[in-house]
């Protein structure tokens, strides 16, 4: 379905996040949870992904430093990490 020009013009931008999680690729091994220096990753035990696992979630986006340690240890390339925007672009 196409999005109308009016809907495009009035659409609110999504809040910036340092981490995008491909939820349905996660197998819940918790390697990332163990390595995160800010302890802002946890399994979401309230849901199950397409693979049948509780997927990992970022619990506090403001505390994440974009260090990318989680992405380096994840065996399934679940994370996309973004550097924080520069002050002049905020
Ligand atoms: S980028 Fe670093 S601080 Fe952010 S969730 Fe991953 S390991 Fe934790
Ligand atoms: S390391 Fe990857 S597969 Fe394991 S829990 Fe974290 S995101 Fe999921």
Tell me about this structure.
This protein has 90 residues and is an alpha+beta fold. It has a single domain (15-89), classed as Alpha-Beta Plaits (2-Layer Sandwich), CATH 3.30.70.20. Helices cover 18% and strands 13% of the residues. It is built from three helices and four strands; from the N terminus they run H-E-H-E-E-H-E. It has a two-stranded antiparallel ribbon. Strands 2-3 form a two-stranded antiparallel ribbon. The radius of gyration is 16 Å and the shape is globular. The chain starts with a helix and ends in a 9-residue tail after the last strand. It binds iron/sulfur cluster (SF4) (2 copies). The site of one iron/sulfur cluster has 16 residues, from helix 3.
Number of domains: 1
How many beta-strand elements? Answer: 4
Most strands sheet: 2 strands, antiparallel
Mean pLDDT: 90
Q: What's the CATH topology label?
A: Alpha-Beta Plaits
CATH architecture: 2-Layer Sandwich
Helix and strand string, N-terminal first?
HEHEEHE
**Into which percentage range does the β-strand content fall?**
5-15%
Going by helix content, strand content and strand pairing, the class is alpha+beta
Topology:
Elements (H helix, E strand, L loop, with lengths): L4 H6 L8 E3 L9 H5 L5 E3 L12 E3 L10 H5 L5 E3 L9
Antiparallel strand pairs: 1-4, 2-3
This protein binds iron/sulfur cluster (2 copies).
């Amino acid at each position: 379905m196409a999005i109308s020009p009016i809907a495009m013009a009035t659409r609110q931008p999504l809040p910036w996040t340092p981490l995008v999680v491909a939820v349905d690729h996660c197998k819940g091994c918790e390697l990332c949870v163990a390595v995160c220096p800010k302890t802002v990753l946890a399994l979401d035990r309230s849901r199950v992904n397409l693979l049948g696992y509780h997927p990992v979630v970022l619990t506090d986006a403001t505390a994440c430093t974009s260090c990318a340690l989680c992405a380096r240890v994840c065996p399934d390339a679940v994370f996309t990490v973004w550097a924080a925007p520069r002050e002049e672009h905020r």
